[in-house]
């Protein structure tokens, strides 16, 4: 196993300015020992994709509370997949109606975390998934 | 010391009880001994300086607060329908939610607007949309609050132009624009330009209103969004009033007499579920602002000293889990706002942690206010909690804590400098993080989230905004850009650039621009040409 820290990119696509949750998560994941690149807000999917590839991250976390997630999340995922060769774990959060979640999962967001999710739950989810992928990669 | 001894003698369910405002230990009991000397004298009668007990002598016996529900979604037609519905239900004022592209200076057909059109509010690209938004609602007779900041001068120009087209005199219009850019850099994040040109736009609007729209509240200095971002009650009070000081000073610096504009400065705060702390916060806020205006700025008009404010129950406290519990939270929060003496109130809908509110949820929210107003009896006397030993002690604590922040910010050179240094953002981020830690460790109980949880919950009916809204609005703005006199639009946009480069008030140029049907995006771009754009430095 390598000693490389897990690299997580956190970003807010679109025009939504509610960044409390994502900022708290950024700090929490750092405290959990991960390397967090906090990209900030008002970003296009293109800008996020570019940063994800440049920073060579393992995880991309997207947050949106404005209701634009169905457009912005899938677009960001597909841009990154088009341009990149590596396996990246996508997670999302915000005000996401439950009925939207299957479609987001279908678009490549492995898990959507709603309001009230403890930081530890997200950190554990990332660690477990990457470990599983790491094992897969070794085969 | 004595109370600690007593605590040992009596078994209690927690080792210690602390305020959420600053973590101070709360005593088991408060008595007359807890009142600090001289402070009670401060709590003069309602309607008397420093207005701790209420700004009006008769409180809600004279007039209830304005029940003002923030609403707006999809297209102007749908929002217009919602407004008419609310009006028929007895709502006494309007509050416009604009979609994010309008707030951040983009037209609906801009690439950054993709997915956002009509989501968080109504899509307004041009005067044409504004005219249709108010079709059948006489603007001369209603009062309207608009949550708009970076583009506030443009949207106010549109509102005034739409009212004129209805035949209303601008001087008679009643309402409020938020127009509070400083808190955008701290929390809400719908800025466009940097702080210096933005402060110029804010004061241009305030100066314009002082002269031409005397019944319009030219700014609503907001603590709400900082609270949402994680600020404690004391931070909300201290930072909001520090921003208020910055605006008053900026107006004085451009040569305006304090009493010529300050009576039209209004405020906007959050109400959390901790009932007594919130009541004390509102009382402390009134007292501090009155003292600042009188002692620091030399105001002599009592209206300049009266803190008038809108309250919204706090969105962050709404839970996705067991959403009907939110009705109870909103009730407690609304009660805090009323016992605190607000002038207007928005109650959140219980489904807002899941989606934009449904019509049913909006109705429950409004009914909550009506039940408090007409059934609870708390409106029958002014400041009913005044004189409670605990409330008075808390009021003093919040005043002291907020003043410490104000003094700290003064030492840095004022709110603008404190924001540029990241001080305010850092303080709030630290509070947000420690709150999350407290929730994650279950030290802070949230019913239905970290205690008393259930597995399977039925999902309530949610409002949906379809994607056809975006297509329609893009087609609309495209048609407008074809049909209008584009040579004229070019000219008015040149005038906007010119006015932005020069001293003097920008409002007349903006009013001409909107009347020529220049769009929000085009006018914002003209201003971007001169002012440039602000980029955030993320502070975690």
Describe the structure.
The complex is a heterodimer of chains A (about 140) and B (about 550). By secondary structure, chain A is α/β, with parallel strands linked by helices. Helices cover about 45% and strands about 20% of the residues of chain A. Chain A has one domain (about 15-140): Cobalamin-binding domain (Rossmann fold, 3-Layer(aba) Sandwich), CATH 3.40.50. Chain A has helices spanning about 20-30, 45-55, 70-85, 100-105, 120-139; strands spanning about 5-15, 35-45, 60-65, 90-95, 110-115. In chain A, helix 1 (about 20-30) packs across helix 5 and helix 2 (about 45-55) packs parallel to helix 3. The radius of gyration of chain A is 14 Å and the shape is globular. In chain A, about 50% of the residues are buried. Residues about 135-139 of chain A have low confidence and may be disordered. Chain B is of the alpha/beta class and about 550 residues long. Among the domains of chain B are: about 1-30, no CATH class; about 30-65 and about 90-95 and about 175-440, Methylmalonyl-CoA mutase (TIM Barrel). Chain B is built from 23 helices and ten strands. Chain B has helices spanning about 1-10, 40, 60, 75-90, 100-105, 125-135, 150-165, 180-190, 195-210, 225-230, 235-255, 260, 275-295, 300-305, 325-340, 360-375, 390-410, 415-420, 425-440, 470-485, 485-500, 505-515, 520-530; strands at about 65, 70, 95, 145, 175, 215, 220, 265-270, 310-315, 345. Chain B has a five-stranded parallel sheet. In chain B, strands 2-3-4-5-6 form a five-stranded parallel sheet, with helices on one face. In chain B, helix 7 (about 150-165) crosses helix 22, helix 11 (about 235-255) packs parallel to helix 13 (about 275-295) and helix 21 (about 485-500) packs antiparallel against helix 22. The mean pLDDT of chain B is about 90. The interface of A and B includes residues 24, 42, 44 and 66 of A.
């Amino acid at each position: 196993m390598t000693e490389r820290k897990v690299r997580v990119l956190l970003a807010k696509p679109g025009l939504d300015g509610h960044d409390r949750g994502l900022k708290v998560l950024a700090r929490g994941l750092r405290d959990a020992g991960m390397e967090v690149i906090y990209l900030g807000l008002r970003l296009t999917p293109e800008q996020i994709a570019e940063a994800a590839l440049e920073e060579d991250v393992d995880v991309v976390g997207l947050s949106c509370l404005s209701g634009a997630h169905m457009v912005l999340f899938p677009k960001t995922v597909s841009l990154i997949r088009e341009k990149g060769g590596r396996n990246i774990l996508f997670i999302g959060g915000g005000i996401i109606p439950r009925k939207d979640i299957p479609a987001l999962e279908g678009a490549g967001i492995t898990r959507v975390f709603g309001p009230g999710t403890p930081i530890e739950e997200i950190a554990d989810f990332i660690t477990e998934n990457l470990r599983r992928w790491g094992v897969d990669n070794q085969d | 010391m004595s109370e600690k001894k007593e605590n040992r003698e009596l078994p209690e369910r927690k080792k210690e009880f602390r305020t959420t405002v600053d973590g101070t230990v709360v005593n088991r009991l408060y008595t007359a001994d807890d009142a600090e000397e001289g402070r009670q004298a401060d709590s003069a009668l309602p309607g008397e300086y420093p207005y701790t007990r209420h700004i009006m002598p008769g409180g809600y016996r004279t007039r209830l607060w304005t029940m003002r529900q923030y609403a707006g979604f999809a297209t102007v037609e749908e929002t217009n329908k919602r407004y008419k519905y609310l009006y028929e239900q007895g709502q006494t004022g309007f509050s416009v939610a604009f979609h994010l592209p309008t707030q951040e200076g983009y037209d609906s057909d801009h690439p950054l607007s993709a997915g956002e059109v009509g989501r968080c509010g109504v899509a307004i690209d041009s005067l044409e949309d504004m005219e249709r938004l108010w079709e059948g609602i006489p603007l001369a007779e209603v009062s309207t609050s608009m949550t708009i900041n970076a583009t506030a001068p443009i949207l106010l120009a549109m509102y005034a132009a739409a009212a004129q087209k209805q035949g209303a005199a601008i001087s008679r219009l009643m309402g409020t624009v938020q127009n509070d850019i400083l808190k955008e850099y701290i929390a809400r994040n719908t800025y466009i330009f940097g702080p210096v040109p933005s402060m110029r736009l804010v004061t241009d609007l305030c100066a314009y209103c002082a002269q031409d729209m005397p019944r319009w509240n030219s700014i609503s200095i907001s603590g709400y969004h900082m609270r949402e971002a994680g600020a404690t009650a004391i931070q909300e009070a201290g930072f909001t009033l520090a921003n208020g000081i910055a605006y008053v000073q900026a107006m004085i610096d451009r040569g305006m007499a304090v009493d010529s504009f300050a009576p039209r400065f209004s405020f906007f705060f959050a109400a959390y579920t901790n009932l007594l702390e919130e009541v004390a916060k509102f009382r402390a806020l009134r007292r501090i602002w009155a003292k600042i205006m009188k002692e620091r700025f030399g105001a002599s008009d009592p209206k300049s000293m009266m803190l008038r404010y809108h309250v919204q129950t706090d969105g962050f406290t709404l839970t996705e889990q067991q959403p009907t519990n939110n009705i109870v939270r909103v009730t407690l929060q609304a009660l805090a706002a009323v016992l605190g003496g607000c002038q207007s109130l928005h109650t959140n809908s219980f489904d807002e942690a899941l989606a934009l509110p449904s019509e049913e949820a909006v109705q429950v929210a409004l009914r909550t206010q009506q039940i408090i107003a007409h059934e609870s009896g708390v409106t029958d006397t002014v400041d009913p909690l005044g004189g409670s030993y605990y409330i008075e002690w808390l009021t003093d604590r919040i005043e002291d804590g907020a003043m410490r922040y104000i003094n700290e910010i003064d030492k840095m050179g004022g709110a603008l400098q404190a924001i540029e240094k990241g001080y305010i953002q850092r303080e709030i981020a630290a509070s947000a993080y420690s709150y999350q830690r407290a929730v994650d460790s279950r030290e802070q109980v949230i019913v239905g989230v970290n205690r008393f949880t259930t597995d399977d919950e039925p999902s309530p009916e949610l409002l949906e905004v379809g994607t056809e809204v975006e297509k329609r609005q893009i087609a609309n703005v495209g048609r407008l850009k074809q049909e209008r006199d584009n040579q004229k639009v070019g000219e008015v946009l040149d005038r906007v650039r010119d006015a932005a480069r020069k001293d003097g008030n920008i409002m007349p140029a903006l009013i001409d621009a909107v009347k020529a049907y220049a769009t929000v995006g085009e006018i914002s771009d003209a201003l971007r040409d001169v002012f440039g754009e602000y980029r955030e430095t993320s502070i975690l």
